[in-house]
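Changelog entry

Holo records now carry the ligand SMILES as an explicit input line rather than a separate metadata file. Below, a converted record for L263DTV3, shown in the new format.
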Amino acid sequence: MQLKYPSAIASFEQIANFAKGKRIALFLDYDGTLSPIVENPDNAFMSDVMRSTVKKVAKYFPTAIISGRSRDKVYEFVGLTELYYAGSHGMDIVGPVRQSTSDDHPNCIESTDTQGNEVNLFQPAREFLPMIDEVFSSLVKSTEEIKGATVENNKFCVSVHYRNVDEDKWKAVWECVEDVIKKYPRLRLTLGRKVLEIRPTINWDKGKALVFLLESLGLSNCDDVLPIYVGDDRTDEDAFKILRERNCGYGILVSKSPKESNAYYSLRDPSEVMEFLKSLVMWKKSSAQ
Ligand SMILES: O=P(O)(O)OC[C@H]1O[C@H](O[C@H]2O[C@H](CO)[C@@H](O)[C@H](O)[C@H]2O)[C@H](O)[C@@H](O)[C@@H]1O
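Structure line, unchanged by the conversion:
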């Protein structure tokens, strides 16, 4: 783990040199990466200029969004059909029909998307759906007296937000969550940015989703592929870690302050993320001539 990472913008030439002769695959987190953190999670809109930048980047590089949100919600925010989407921290993936079948994923089914394209739907926590709905309802009820607390159903996980709760009531939010999840040994708690996230104990996270998508895209060969993952939150560390362990690709942490991370580079905020994505497009265009 390191605490300081060079700026991906200042180090762009270094990244571009390393990417020469390789295919870049891009993986982007949503909240805090493509959209700024805001008080109301329903208002975490992406700007039009960010949307058109992501659209351009996806024209040149396979691009996926990997978010803690439900897949439908993140698609509602982003609205670009040219991307792949993984919601619920990677537990709900719509990707291309898998080219590599090196390992068995029994929960992977062929399906068609809204445009009629053949896709693969992968939902490794499918059996948890009724349990998650139950937990969501219990938490809505148990937190209703805590001013500012909100509960979000992210399909295969539940988020309990305390950003708008007075600090002296944060403990009460924790207690509500602990009280509910102690009845569900097959669920676990993870932490995000002023949010408690309840999710299945299955061995699956954003890092596994990244590997799954690379395999689906036929891009798991590190010799000629450079995966880049950009994210701001603790759950993105699973993806940074995988890239570091495989010595394949770069994690880029979006943060204004130094933090412990497995990322290689950093960007300060979504506006720098946009600048970095624009640089990738310009570099690709100029190197294609
Ligand atoms: O994986 P992500 O796409 O980063 O999603 C992680 C969580 O993001 C959202 O919550 C965060 O952003 C909100 C809007 O800016 C903010 O109000 C909240 O405090 C942050 O934690 C989302 O609402 C959660 O469900 C996601 O799990």
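Spot-checked after migration. Residues 9 and 276 are 6 Å apart (CA to CA). The helical segments are 12-19, 48-60, 71-78, 129-143, 170-181, 206-216, 237-245, 270-288.
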